[in-house]
Amino acid sequence: MKFVSYLLLNAMILGLFSISCSATKSKSQKPEPPKPIVEGPKLIGRIASIPAGGRFVLIQRYDKWEVEVGKILTTRGPDQRSANLKITGESLGEFAAADVQSGLVEVGDAVYLQHNVKPVASPASPEIPASETEKPQEDVQNNN
To answer: How far apart are CA 42 and CA 65, in angstroms?
Structure first.
């Protein structure tokens, strides 16, 4: 019984100590600004075919995706090969065409869409009037 009361007393002291420590935290510390959300590359398809002599490929899409024309995709092969592909905008059914920009591709290579970092909304900053941000025009000599 004496041992149980000893444990209970220690638990109470520890609880009071932790409460007092949390109460003494300085409120002057600035909260850490939120970090941007980073999403990794998304697997969107595979190389279905590479026409002979052509510098383009057909990508078999795994799911419906809306990738704008000119967007750069990356590929990855089993032996760590990689390539950059540029979407041409031509598609038929589950296949889309892309030009090979760099690297080596083989049938079956994974195709990834790189996501951009999504910025976190920052706290409102005070507006600076345009007159304060504009620099006065200096007289610059033009050599024609």
So the answer is: 11
Report the relative pairing of strands 82-92 and 95-103 from DSSP bridges.
antiparallel
Could you identify the residue written with the tokens 């000893």? 6
Q: What is the pLDDT of residues 27-83, one digit of tens each?
A: 567 777 777 666 778 899 999 999 887 689 999 999 887 788 888 999 999 998 999
Q: Return the beta strands (E) in 17-143 as ranges.
A: 42-49, 56-61, 72-76, 82-92, 95-103, 110-113
Q: How far is CA 102 from CA 1, 50, 81, in A?
A: 77, 14, 11
Rg of the chain over CA atoms, in angstroms? 30
Q: Rounded to 5 degrees, what are φ and ψ at 121?
A: -60, 125
pLDDT digits (tens, 9 = 90+) for 79-134: 989 999 999 988 888 999 999 999 999 999 999 988 655 555 555 555 555 555 55
Residue with tokens 């009037």: 129
Are the CB atoms for 83 and 104 separated by under 8 Å?
yes
Collapsing DSSP to helix, strand or coil, 74 comes out as strand
